[in-house]
Amino acid sequence: MSTISRNTAGAGPRGWSHRLAFVLTFICLVLLLLAGLVRHAWAETSAAPVPAGLVTLNDIESGALLFNTKEPGKYVPAPLLATDVKIDVSGPIARARVTQRFINPGDSWVEGKYIFPLPEDSAVDTLKMVIGDRVIEGRIKEKQEARQIYEEAKAAGKKASLVEQQRPNVFTNSVANIGPGETIVVQIEYQQTAHREGDTFSLRFPMVVAPRYTPKEADPRFVDFTPGESGWGEVLPPEEKDTLEQPPVLHPEAGKVNPVSLKVSLDAGFPLGEVKSPHHDVTIERGGKNAATIALKKELVPADKDFELTWKPAAAKAPTAALFRERVGNEDYLLVMLTPPSGDVQPETKPREAVFVIDNSGSMSGPSMDQAKESLLWALDRLKPGDTFNVIRFDDTLTVLFPDAVPAHGENLAVAKKFVKSLEANGGTEMLPALRAALTDRQSHGTDRVRQVVFLTDGAITNERELFSEITTNLGRSRLFTVGIGSAPNSYFMTRASEAGRGTFTHIGNEQQVVERMSELFEKLGSPVMTNITATWPDGHTTESWPNPVPDLYKGEPVVLSARMPQAKGTLILRGDVAGEPWEVRMAVGKGEARAGIGKLWARRKIEQLEADARIAGNWEENDSSILKVALEHHLVSRLTSLVAVDVTPSRPDGEKLTAKDMPVNLPEGWDYDKVFGEQAVSPMQRAALQKGSAQYAAVLAAPAPAADRGPGMALPQTATDAPALIHSGIIALLLAIALGALWWLQRHWAATAWARRSR
Question: Which is nearest to 309 in space by CA: 290, 294, 328?
Answer without folding.
Answer: 294
